[in-house]
Write a sequence for this structure.
């Protein structure tokens, strides 16, 4: 299993936003520089996050699962649930195993908020930010 670049960038972008106080206004270039994300790729990530209505929410109310799914869609490890190779009438021999892993991963990502991830690393208001992406 591998985390996609798009999902990684989405998590890193929201992490950077969560480091700042609610209401801080950040320029996408600042987010890109701080998290070493190419600006061109960050624009798509910000669109996905905005479409999922995540940018205006407080870090305490954004989970890693929500950010991942905004970038990639639902977490699906079972090939039949991805519709790659449907199981048909009988589930495949490893279906229960992958379903269990998928369920545990989804539950774990749902329990972690960006407030918990950033902890005490929050930056003071006005610490080198420019306007564009808003964090409320």
């Amino acid at each position: 299993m591998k985390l996609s670049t798009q999902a990684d960038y989405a998590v890193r972008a929201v992490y950077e936003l969560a480091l700042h106080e609610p209401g801080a206004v950040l320029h996408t270039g600042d987010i890109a520089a701080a998290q070493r994300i190419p600006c061109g790729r960050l624009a798509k990530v910000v669109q996905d996050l905005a479409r999922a209505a995540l940018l205006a929410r407080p870090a305490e109310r954004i989970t890693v699962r929500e950010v991942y799914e905004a970038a990639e869609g639902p977490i699906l490890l079972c090939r039949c649930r991805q519709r790659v190779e449907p199981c048909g009438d009988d589930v495949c021999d490893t279906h229960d195993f992958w379903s269990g892993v998928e369920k545990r991963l989804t539950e774990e990502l749902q329990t972690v908020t960006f407030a918990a991830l950033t902890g005490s690393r929050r930056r003071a208001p006005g610490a080198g930010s420019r306007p564009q992406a808003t964090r409320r």
Observations:
- The mean pLDDT is 85.
- The chain has six helices and two strands.
